[in-house]
Design brief:
4-stranded parallel beta sheet; 14 strands; elongated; Rossmann fold
């Protein structure tokens, strides 16, 4: 009898053993419903499956505003997530709320678009800023030749990444070999399809000699490609920039776009989660540190605790259909 009771008690104790809760890592994007960020979510889920014991919370505001992200992050602090990985709509506006998160022991890193240094442990840039700016100019020259008026259609006026790339574009354009390319305007579509489309139409009207629109945002480049098609300006105005193959294949076929570039957003989401997990497990985010990015490699932090994932990749008629099936 005692033996049976002992066995029963042991079974009850076994049932009462707590199951280890998964580490919750939140991926906070600029806005929901953007294909680029949907692809980063896919990569994040891949990393979570590979790591085990990691749960991804994919979230963001309906519109790309700092206020929306602040509200989301406050909610995540209340949920006591272990890490927050965020692409910032504004570098400075998020600092108070992300500092609050870090004070509560939550690991905070930015990816894609940086939070200012005081508001995060580290930043993972998708590529090297100088290389991106130079690539945007080189693709423009390849599309239209050595002379002509060009304009930039960006995301929000506060977007850290786009502003940095535009600054690097201007540095490249100042070189003697690009003296024939004239940047006549920079406009902002706020990463909204309708507004980006209207801004592209506005450029056609205000700059009748425009030869190229350069859009360093996936929303803007697709909207500009559609505007060129709708206004029957194929061959007159060419579009290039940073875009998703799935959204740009049709514009390449139409002739509105000769080539465009992007890093792999699946890899960007995947690498960010690996880094966040390493920080949760005790890795230090400090200058000179190397942090694991799984199959993508290793992130080496510079003096500002920033690292670059990889160089951007060029897509054109020779390869866009292949990649359009992936993202």
């Amino acid at each position: 009898m005692k033996t049976k009771l002992a066995v029963a008690a042991a079974m009850m104790i076994g049932l009462a053993q707590p199951v280890l809760a998964a580490d919750k890592i939140a991926l906070v994007v600029k806005a929901l419903g953007i294909g680029f960020f949907d692809a980063t979510h896919q990569g994040a889920l891949e990393a979570a499956k590979e790591l085990g014991n990691v749960e991804i919370i994919y979230t963001g505001p309906a519109k790309a505003t700092a206020e929306g992200q602040i509200e989301v992050i406050n909610s995540l602090i209340a949920q006591k997530v272990k890490a927050i990985v965020v692409s910032a709509n504004d570098p400075d506006a998020l600092v108070p709320v992300t500092k609050k998160a870090m004070q509560r022991g939550i690991k905070v890193i930015s990816f894609d678009s940086a939070i200012s240094k005081d508001g995060r442990m580290m930043h993972l840039a998708p590529s090297n800023n100088a290389l991106i700016g130079e690539k945007l100019v080189k693709m423009t020259e390849k599309s239209i030749g050595k002379t002509g008026e060009i304009a930039v259609l960006s995301a929000t006026a506060q977007a850290t990444n786009q502003n940095t790339w535009i600054a690097e574009m201007k540095k490249t354009l100042s070189k003697p070999e690009y003296s024939g390319l004239k940047l006549v305007s920079v406009v902002y579509g706020d990463d909204q399809t309708d507004k980006s489309y209207r801004e592209a139409l506005g450029l056609f009207k205000s700059h009748p000699n425009l030869k190229a629109i350069v859009a360093p945002t996936t929303v803007g480049i697709a909207a500009a490609g559609k505007a060129v098609q709708d206004e029957k300006k194929i061959g007159q105005v060419l579009v290039t920039g940073l875009g998703l193959p799935s959204e740009m294949a049709g514009h390449v076929k139409s002739g509105a776009v000769n080539s465009f570039a992007i890093w792999n957003p699946i890899d960007l989401g995947y690498a960010s989660i690996h880094i966040a997990n390493a920080l949760i497990k005790g890795a230090k985010a400090e200058p000179g540190a190397s942090l694991p990015m799984g199959r993508v490699g290793t992130a080496k932090l510079d003096a500002s605790n920033e690292a670059a994932m990889a160089e951007p990749f060029t897509y054109d008629a020779s390869n866009v259909d292949k990649f359009a099936k992936i993202f």
